[in-house]
Amino acid sequence: MPEGDPMWWTLAAAIALGVSAGFMVVWLLTRQIRNSAVERAEELKEVARREAAVAGQEIKQRVEEELVARRAEHNREFDRREIEVEIKLREIRVHEESLGLLDHQLEQKSERLARENGAIRQARDSMRAMSKSIRKRLEGVSQMDADEIKHALREEVQLECQDELRAMKRQILDRSEQDLSNEAKRILITAMQRLASQPNNDIIATIVQLPSEDMKGRIIGREGRNIKSFEGTTGVTLLIDESPQMVLISSFDPVRREIARIALEALVKDGRIHPASIEEFYARAREEVDLNVQQSGEDALQKLGINGLHPEIIKVLGKLKYRFSYTQNALDHSIEVGFLCSMLASELGLDPNIAKRAGLLHDVGKAIDGDYEGSHATIGADFVKRHGETPIVVNAIAAHHEEVKPETVYAGLVILADTVSAVRPGARAESMTGYIQRLDRLEKLAMSIEGVQQAYAIQAGREVRVVVNPQQVTDEQAHELAKELRLRIEAELQYPSTIKITVIRESRFTETAT
Q1: What digits encode the pLDDT tens for the residues 154-178?
Q2: Exposure check for the chain: N or C terminus, fewer CB within 10 A?
Q3: How far apart are CA 339 and CA 162, in angstroms?
Q4: How would CATH label the architecture of 433-504?
Q5: Which CATH number, 1.10.10.10, 1.20.1600.10, 3.40.50.1370, 1.10.3210.10, labels domain 305-423?
């Protein structure tokens, strides 16, 4: 088609117009796509910003939790170190006390040795002065040579020393007899027996045979005057029932019961029963029992070959003769434990004298008069410590029921020997049924008190732990509950040694976060 043709120009114009329209469409599409890409980029940028903020928050939270955990761990470690330091300080204090006691004992021994050295020096000086005077006298009255004078002087000094030694020995024996007489005349202070055993007639009661039934009336007296006087003087209870020709003496204190038995038998034999004669025969019986107690303690020491024991310890040790742990005699048990400790110590290469000393004295707390707090092990340890026993023996006594930590091998020997002596066949007559019943009675008695949720008898019945309801029992009421349970146990139960009462009141508060 020629260029001058109008159709050509029309077609060219149409093509140009199409190209322009296409360009506009492409330009518009490109702009729209670019705007969409910008909006999408902004959206992605906002999402990335939010995700970064969340991730940063999570990292911050984890860091904070880790810091809290490390801080708690450091606090626990600090608390543990504080506890360890406190334990070390306590151990140091205990060692300081032991060292202080040893220093005091060394000072006492040094003072005693200084006094003895002074006495020896004075005696030596007097002997030298006497020797010089004798030498001068011999030289003046005789013409003997030096050897003869020395021989004569030696014989004379020996004779004089022998006379002084005999006189000193006689003086010591006289003083010992006088001390024994004074101890026998002292009044035996009796109190409530600290140890109550199983209700068994041959342990807590003594039967006295009467020559006739008429003697019961004389023992009772007019309007009960004689029996009231006897019970008030001796501190026991006389049970006079329909049993033919016998009366029953009842008391938890075996020493007091033995004094009453001797006094009553003497009164029945004499026939004169009235308040004045009761006091007279009671005083005689008390002196006789005091002598038996002292003799029993000395016999126990002689059997084991122990020396240097304080007289007060010997007297208390002798009282174990009248005490029983169930059916086992306490003094025989202590002697047996002493022998066992000695043999075990010899086998182990230890000092048998220290071992048998600790074994003999391990139950001495059972015979100590008075109302003391704590078990017989701790009371006995404090008693012998006051009378000069060594820390090894004191710890062995205190730890023989493992209430105190054993500090030496000797304490372990006493624990072992005490167990062997107690559990050997025929030593003690309590059956397993009776033992279980005693623990069951203790727990039931605790459960019978209002507010108690649970009760557990532990440590072979030596401790009862009571858990109370915190909604029903306050802290003050829990303290009173412990006192009430103690009084009820003392009034209603028969038990050996002591029973520790622990009342636990615990409140727990729990919440759950979701």
Answers
A1: 776 666 666 666 666 666 666 655 5
A2: C
A3: 39
A4: 2-Layer Sandwich (3.30)
A5: 1.10.3210.10
